[in-house]
Each structure stands twice: as structure tokens, then as C-alpha cells.
Amino acid sequence: MAKMNREELEKIKQRLKALVTVREGNARVTVIVHMGPCGIAAGARPVLKAFIKELEARDASDVIVTISGCAGRCSQEPVVTVHCGAEQPVFYGKVSEETAKEIFSQHVMGGKVLEHYRAEEGAER
Amino acid sequence: MKYYRSHMLICAGTGCVASKSLAVKKALEEELVKHNLEDEVLVVATGCNGFCAAGPVMVVYPEGIFYQRLKPEDMAQLVEEHVLQGRPVEQLMFTDPAKKKTIPRMHDISFFGLQELRALRNRGIIDAEKIDDYIARNGYFAVARALMEMTSEQIISQIKESGLRGRGGAGFSTGMKWEFASKARGDIKYALCNGDEGDPGAFMDRSILEADPHVVLEGMTIAAKAIGAHQGYIYVRAEYPLAVSRLRIAINQAREYGLLGKNILGSGFDFDVEIYQGAGAFVCGEETALMTSIEGKRGMPRPRPPFPAHQGLWKKPTILNNVETYANVPPIILNSAQWFNRLGTEGSKGTKVFAVTGAINNIGLVEVPMGTSLRTIIYDIGGGIPNRRKLKAVQLGGPSGGCVPESLVDTPVDFESITKTGAIMGSGGMVVIDETSCMVNLAKFFLEFTQDESCGKCTPCRIGTKVMLDILENICTGKGAEGDVETLEDLSVTIKNASLCGLGQTAPNPVLTTIRYFRDEYEAHIKDKICPAVSCTDLIKFEVVSDLCKKCGKCAKACPVLAITWEKGHVAFIDKEICTKCKTCIATCPFRAIA
Questions:
Q1: Helix residue ranges, H only, chain A
Q2: Domain assignment of residue A33, given as a range
């Protein structure tokens, strides 16, 4: 009996797909949680954790959740940017753990922009 | 599934480990624990990243930020700024020396951006000690295809069509080699891997073995299927402890997964691999000597024919391929022969890995398409010559190779073009030489090496190289005589013609090429008793040339025995009574004013 067949090889590859996605940067969707000091103060860390939890629960190995510095919209913190392919990036403002869940299921997985959570334009500074 | 939002890949190749990358890794892990981030961030020790001059190096994904020259004490700031707040730390990034601009992303640095990674495609991006990481990047899928879907003939014809040639030096067609062994009669055959990398300054194979050991096992298994072998040996020198240890881990993991051993992937094909550690004799890189060594005898070459394809290890049909050659095999099987030969030149397909070292800013490992010019490698990827010095020559192919002078820097690197210059492609050693090196002395250095490593079997190699070395020694110490150059040329021809193996057949190459391109330097040593590069101690007067001296006093400050007197506004003076001829002043003087 062979110890492993091709299907099992394929399974290992699938299981580690996220590793390749993160290191090759070829994600379908990239979610960026902005972690400037104001963002962290407004609760960006639990939001980040919520996104990671969603990603893990859904095995979304073609999605990257990462962080970046201050987005310059301090009054709207926590701010999250969602990059979906070649589409214009979408800024979400005042994101909570609850809205994070919604953004993940609707926008990241479903491709539907949640207009009512968008960060207000020009509200900063 | 478990998701890590940041992957921090720290180089644990031999170069970076030597510059304490493991201490950096430890400090990083401690900082992450301190901030409760160990659950979000994955720290990975990888094989050689290639940019050894900048070590210890680290790449942070998904951003692809490249950090260099890291110290353990940098890690607190790195974690607080980059990992916690998403603000990459600028002062730890690479700075373009010409534009004085920091370049955050690895792929924007020309050292990396201009490379084409095929043999090195997994370098620095996977954990070399995890087979799953290798599988995630399509590892072992080529073996699956070769064993389940292809016949031996199909594998051989695909490799032949790709145009892959041996990366160890001679450049023989890999497909042809496999075909000979495949057609040879015999129940027992062997597939061997040559990891006996011995050229001074060369570290291509070591880096592949350290960064991606599974690719070699996969390449070997495909070769084994092609020729009908069930046992393989990897001959790797014992001076490569990290490569040996990673190989050993890889072999065990592959066996555990059934990717080595009996009935691989249920295909019914059996193949297993053992490591044979060489003691470091240069001649054991020669195929028949290598096989003799595995047989437990003193590593010495024997006459061919019979060629190893018919009578190799233990007189059985055997193939021997170099580490880098095997690393090229799996992608050819997976992507097609056309994919492979799209890159390269008419006679040299694909890419070649070079270990670029010597008088160059970006010392490291580079992989470029065949046909890339030496100029591109040295100036665009290598970042040029340090200390505002001029390029003089490039030594290609180690002690078996030769020097390509600055005037031929536009030569494309492929088997044919390099051979035309009198050098050889070799296994990929590339030593960059600036104007401060004496070419006679350089030839002497390489000949010292081959003379020392000659196994002694053939008289022309054993005695001829010794006589040549004595002549070079005389020339460098001012005892050269009229006619020496001609004697060197004469001896070279005899040694090349009358030696059994590649060692003797190529040993005179460094002498021949330096005579060909730098004959005037030989003549200056012999007739005028001058070393134009101011390098051969016995031919240096240790006097300050007042026309060139800019009266800066740097030499006086550098002299360890206070033999130089200097006053502001005056030409320095060297007291020869005190001078110990250590040449510190020559190395220090920015104006080359000491002769």
C-alpha cells in the first residue's frame, strides 16, 4: 500500500493555500485594517481579530487580512480598506467587530459594497 | 484553517546565520510574545535569500518589505512599528547607493527585480525543513505526473526538447545523458547527485540544498524513473553541515509521506536516496572520482570509456547530475519544455545561477536568463564596484575557468560565448576583480589551489602544475626570466592534453586567460620588475609618488608601525627601515599614490 496518493498531495496543497496567497501576494481580496495610534485607540485590534476569525471560519484562503498605518481619517477610526481586484478600494469607517463580520460576508465573500458603512469623504482633518 | 496575518521570513542560510540571524530570530520571537502577537504572526527561518552582503535579511509578507543588516536590538522597534502599527521601519530598509533612496519592497530592489528565479524559485519563501511548504508551492506534483502519466521515453524526450544542459560545468545535454543510461542494459542502475561544490567562492548548490532540499529529491526521482534506477546517492561535502542536515530532514519527511521508498504515490515505482558525505577533495567533483569515492576507495578519476552511463557506480549504469540541474527538472515536467526554453539563447536554454563575489557591492546569489550580459550582472544586479574603483576582470568558472577582461564585459553569459573568451561557464562561480588585483598573482592563487588538489594520478597534472606554480612564484617575486611566459604556455598545452580528468585538463585555464588578456602585466613583472596593480609585495618600492599624493595624510594615520611621516600640506614619506611591507597604506590611499 502506498502511504500517500495524488489526492492527498492535493489536499496538503489546498490546506496551505493561504501560505502561498500571503507570500505571493496574489489574493482575490485584500482587507487592510488601519492601525495608527488613533485606530488602535478606537478599537482596531478587536476589529482585526474579528476579520481574521471570519477568514479562518470560512477557509477563505484567497483573502489577505493585513494591517497598515494611519489612513488619515482619524475621526472615522477604526478604518478598514477593502481591495477587490481592479476595483476602486472601498474605505469603511467606524468599523466594529459586528460590522467586520458583515463586511466579510457581504463584501469580501459576496462582492457587495456596503454603502452605509463607507467612511464619510472629507470628514477627517 | 489557521491564518497568520503576517509572515516574517528570516534568512537562515549559512551567510546570514554567520552574521547572527538566529539571534535576531530569537529576539523577534521574544518581542512578539511580549505583545501577544505570536498567534497572529508567523516567523519562518528560510534558506538563503541570495542577498548575502546585506545579511541578516528578513522579508515581511504580505507587504513584501525587505529588511537588512538586522540586529537583535532592532526587533523591539520593528515589532512595535511594523507589526503593531503597520508602519514599516525605514532605517532598516535597503538604500540604493546611487540614488540614496530607501527601497521598501524586495521586488523593487534591482538586485532582486532583475533576476529570474527558476532553480531558486523557492528560496527564501518556504521553510526548508517543512515538506508541506514545498508541496504548497507545487512540490512533488512533477513526480506525480512523471510516475503516473509518463513513460520513461516521454520524460527523456521532454527533457531533451527543453534543451537543459548540465549546470555543473561541462554543459552536457541532460536528456542525452539520461537516454544513454536508460538504454544501457542492466537490472541495477543508479541516479546520483553531485553536490561536491568545490570552486573557491562558489555557493550555488549549497544554497539550493539549504533553501529547497526537496526540489533535488524530486528531480532525482524523475531522473530515476527515466533511466530505471531505484537507488540514488547525493554526494555532498561534509563542510556543508547545514545542507547535509536539511537534506537529511527532507529525506526523512519524504519517506514518511511515501514520496521516497516503495510504491511512490501508488505508482508502483520504488526509489530511495542516501547521502554520502565527501571529505572535501576537489577532484571528487569529477564524475568517475566521485563514484570511486562512494565505493569507499580513494577518490581518483579513471579513464573513460566506459562512460558512467554504461559502467558507473559499482560498474552499473549510472547518471550523475549537478544539484542545480536537478532543481530545473520538476518545473520542466510540470510546465513543458517550451516554457523552459523560452528563456535563454540558441544553444543555452533557461537560466543560470551565479555566486557573485569579490570586488562588488551586492555580493550574493543571482539567477538570470542565459544570455544576460556580464555588465548587467555586475552593474545592474551587483551594484557595481565599491570604493570608486574600476572593474578589471571577471573570473568565471573557478580554478577551471578563466578571466574575462573588462573590455569584454558585454559578453552574454551562455556556454558558447563564455567558452569563446577562454573562460568557462563552470558551475557558476563569478569573482569580480578590480584594478588593485594583480593578474599574475590571481593566476598563481588558482593554480596553487589546483596543484594542491591534484590527485597525483597523471604526471602532467601532478608535476606540470607544480613547475608552473614555481614559475609564477618567481615572476611575482621579481625573479622572473625572459621566456617564462612561453614556458607557461607550453606546459599548459601539455597538461591540458595529457591529463585524464577535468581537473588537469582545465587547471592551466586561469594562467592561459590571464596571459591572453594581461600579457603586459606578466612582461612588466619579468622585464621591469614592476607589479602594475601594486599588489606583489616584493615588487613594490614602498615610496610615495609625489605627483599623485594629495597630501591627505591618511596613509600616515593608517600605518600600524608609524613608518610614515606626514605634515599638513606635505607629501608623506615612508621610512623603509621601519616599514614592514604590510600594505595597509596602499589599501588606504584613495589616490593610489604609493608604488
A1: 6-15, 17-24, 37-41, 44-58, 97-103
A2: 27-121
